[in-house]
TrEMBL record:
<comment type="subunit">
    <text>Homodimer.</text>
</comment>
<keyword id="KW-0963">Cytoplasm</keyword>
<keyword id="KW-0349">Heme</keyword>
<dbReference type="InterPro" id="IPR009050">
    <property type="entry name" value="Globin-like_sf"/>
</dbReference>
<keyword id="KW-0479">Metal-binding</keyword>
<feature type="domain" description="Globin">
    <location>
        <begin position="1"/>
        <end position="65"/>
    </location>
</feature>
<dbReference type="InterPro" id="IPR000971">
    <property type="entry name" value="Globin"/>
</dbReference>
<dbReference type="InterPro" id="IPR001032">
    <property type="entry name" value="Leghaemoglobin-like"/>
</dbReference>
<dbReference type="GO" id="GO:0005634">
    <property type="term" value="C:nucleus"/>
</dbReference>
<comment type="similarity">
    <text>Belongs to the plant globin family.</text>
</comment>
<dbReference type="InterPro" id="IPR012292">
    <property type="entry name" value="Globin/Proto"/>
</dbReference>
<dbReference type="GO" id="GO:0005737">
    <property type="term" value="C:cytoplasm"/>
</dbReference>
<dbReference type="Pfam" id="PF00042">
    <property type="entry name" value="Globin"/>
</dbReference>
<dbReference type="GO" id="GO:0019825">
    <property type="term" value="F:oxygen binding"/>
</dbReference>
<keyword id="KW-0539">Nucleus</keyword>
<dbReference type="GO" id="GO:0020037">
    <property type="term" value="F:heme binding"/>
</dbReference>
<protein>
    <recommendedName>
        <fullName>Globin domain-containing protein</fullName>
    </recommendedName>
</protein>
């Protein structure tokens, strides 16, 4: 989860994610090594968003999120 937070912070601050010698870069290398592809990210995205949707109060959630 720290990688997601790190990327979100960079995106908010700079408008893009810059991958240098960061945890995110190491994570990307591991994903590449194991053949993780776009289809895998779609599954994870769905699961993550559904989990967040269940965890936050209904008035704080919107489909735009």
């Amino acid at each position: 989860m720290s990688q997601t937070c790190e990327a979100a912070a960079q995106l908010r601050k700079d408008g893009k994610v810059t991958v240098r010698d960061t945890t995110l870069k190491r994570l990307g290398a591991t994903h590449f090594k194991y053949g993780v592809g776009d289809a895998h990210f779609e599954v994870v995205k769905f699961a993550l968003l559904e989990t967040i949707k269940e965890a936050v109060p209904a008035d704080m959630w919107s489909p735009a999120m």
